Amino acid sequence: MTADMVARLQESADPSVRVAVAYSRHATPETRDRLLALVEAEDAAGSDDAAVALRWSPYKPNWLRDASLAERLTYLDCPHAVFRRILAASRDLPEEAWQRLDNDPDVSVRRAAAHRPDTPPQVLLRLLRAHGERSHVRPPLVDHPNFPRQELRDFADDPNPAVRFLALKDPGLPATELRRFKEAAESFLRAGAARHPNVSADLLEQLLADPVPQVAEAAAANPVLSQARMERILVEAGL
């Protein structure tokens, strides 16, 4: 993209075009800041087009992945999180860069950095305690080889439901702890308890009567349920 093309495209009325230009390798930092500030202002004013351009644009600065280490490191101070997030997907950064990314003000940057192979256990634990897991991100951070899985049980007392849910990732979570999840206001916590391998037969029976279908279905699918009870469920359903 030539300088003339950048100059012409940045005047577009379409916020998606302006965001794409801002993410281009050929945009200067000053041009990038100005374009993104304009779209952010439009977003703040209620523009749906600006919101889509900022949050769901297919255009990302993916060229940064292939840049030299020296060039990538210049983006540690970039004010736009999308550039720092792509930088955090690197695997060859020096330790001081990882320390900064692990403490980035944007949680999505910290999550990206935490997926590197040698993330310290305390970094993973701190991130999950603060924010829980992102269900659509694979692999989950709780499955990271360095994550201290012996700490999972302590998450059962966390007031944040997203963090509390991680306790259910402990296959050895006692049945007494699982019983507490039955009273949770959030149906995904009750469904998690219904799927757990340590759930007791009597707790499963209670979860089968849950008013939320997904919870009852999770309980009905748990192998802990006796064959006779499974057959009775099928008969009652007319199957």
TrEMBL record:
<dbReference type="InterPro" id="IPR011989">
    <property type="entry name" value="ARM-like"/>
</dbReference>
<protein>
    <recommendedName>
        <fullName>Leucine rich repeat variant</fullName>
    </recommendedName>
</protein>
<dbReference type="Pfam" id="PF01816">
    <property type="entry name" value="LRV"/>
</dbReference>
<dbReference type="InterPro" id="IPR016024">
    <property type="entry name" value="ARM-type_fold"/>
</dbReference>
<dbReference type="InterPro" id="IPR004830">
    <property type="entry name" value="LRR_variant"/>
</dbReference>
